[in-house]
Amino acid sequence: MLRNRLLFLQNDKNKKQAITAISRKSQAAHNTNLCAKPKARLAAILPALVVTFTGAAAIGSAFSAIAANNESAQTRTYTKEGVETHFTVIAHRGASGYLPEHTLEAATLAFSLRPDFIEQDVVITKDDIPVVLHDIHLETVTNVEDVFPARHRDDGRFYARDFTLEELRQLRVHERANSDGKQVFKDRYRGTHANFKVATLNEHFELISELNRQFGTSVGVYPEVKSPAFHIKEGIDASKIVVDALNAYGFGGESGNSYLQCFDFNEVKRIRETLGYKGKIVMLIGENDWGESDTDYDWLRTQEGMQQVALYADGIGPWLGHLLDNEAMAQGKIEAATWINYAHENNLTIHPYTYRHDALPAGMSSQQVLDVLHNVVDADGVFTDHLVPVLTWRDKQN
What keywords were assigned to this record (predicted)? Predict the structure, then answer.
């Protein structure tokens, strides 16, 4: 639907009306498609802004200029604080573009494709066990309504925190669905017989550790503490549980092959100062109306905000829609947003989210999207549902 809307906007002569229409549609999606925020419902992201403001012809010219001016940059490596890096590929919720997200099967498939990191979103069960789910709710990715129809809260949602691990094991995990029960991404896994299950964080860490040991590889982990303030109100310290798991499996600490991420800036500070965590931390950046936390993300994207983030975090995970300069796009140019310079000035690693091969907007190819991230934004990597096209693109850069 959003992709079709963007096609319409290309021919809309009134820019102000076009922007208003997108804003209203985004708000409607926020209200009706609760299962898909913040990462899953952001399908069009950065390229959508390009289409809206410039039109297909301007896009083509802009990308031609990028290709001409950055031919050598496309094969470069670059340094931050004197350390040579490469473009990091993060398996978003495992190989979620091919198998139901956050299942052990999706993690195994992701490992086989050799990303740099595999992501785990973490929530805590009734019996205080960390499980890997993107949301604190269950109905968007499981059949909880069928198995436990009366176990919802007053808001109609089924919370993982209200179920023991044994109860969660009775559920089947399926492709992410909208509030009407339809798949968010209709062409992804359509099977109905495979018995995918909710898995614990320890199971994920053990799986990746054992595969690394046997194959002599070093695929890292990238857990996110989901809704830490919610968990604190529930009487549980989700961050400490995740930190303890990272340390127990050798992924934590200064030399651990991991990043620990969170949308809550106060929690990022608490992880660093109160919990004394020494490993790499990423501050996730979204929109204030997503309800992820009480963090002011607009302030974070200021010079002062980036300076404060750099005191506690090693990097940022920004939404793709925040990366480009809107005024430049209105003139048919593709330039990084000013605030991105503040992140670079503070030597913050930049891992934007989320590249989805089945949600590319009209007028842009996979290579163009990735070239913008690499050559314009100077991002250090990307979260992706679809590892194959991103890894293939990266191989060509080398």
Answer: Glycerol metabolism, Hydrolase, Signal
